[in-house]
Amino acid sequence: MKSAMILAIAMAALPAAVSAAEDPGDAGSAPVVCFDCHGQDGASVQPDIPIIGGLSAFALEENLFAFRAGDRPCRPTRYRAGAPDRPATDMCQIAAALSDEEIVRTAAFFASRPFVPAEQHVDQDSADRGAAIHERDCHHCHGEGGSDPADHASILGRASG
Q: Which residues have a Cβ under 8 Å from the Cβ of 57 and sit 6 or more positions away?
């Protein structure tokens, strides 16, 4: 009887918990530490901090799990907002502190944000060489010239945005 009552209360609360976790407007959907480098919507303006807003949730999750497992290289960086005087960190340290649920929620949060392409100079000769390499080796996984932020294999090239 007591178990049935606990189950009924948990089931009644489930829709509110699910909608709160899925609400992209809920700043609690991503750890604040992410905003300290990537910005509130994942639109970093720092040249060494990737833009993650608008990328595929699948790609973001895969990267966070890879960082947590140490399967991706983790370059030290400094915080850019909040308290920038904190010691340098890296994505492996940050991802190590995230649970599976937090990784999924964080990926969904940033995927729901608009993609804002970085301002960048394009060397046309380099871009042409890269396009040839992409066509030869990369187009099977990275569609639209590698420039689609919603691509589950993630973005490779300059996004049209």
A: 104, 107, 108, 110, 111
Residue 107 is predicted with a pLDDT of 96
Spell out the domains of the chain, with CATH numbers in brackets.
17-116 (1.10.760.10), 119-161 (no CATH)
Q: Which residues does residue 77 pair with via DSSP β-bridges, in sequence order?
A: 89
pLDDT digits (tens, 9 = 90+) for 77-103: 888 777 778 888 999 999 999 999 999
Neighbours of 30 (CB within 10 A): 24
Query: 25-72, pLDDT tens digit by residue?
Result: 444 478 888 998 899 899 998 888 899 999 999 999 999 999 999 999
**Which residue, 88, 38, 96, 41, is CA-closest to 64?**
96
Tokens linked to 46: 């720092």
* Tokens linked to 48: 């060494």
Nearest to 50 by CA among 26, 67, 25: 67
Q: Give Cα 156 distance to the centre of its chain.
A: 14
Cβ atoms of 141 and 133 within 8 Å: the answer is: no
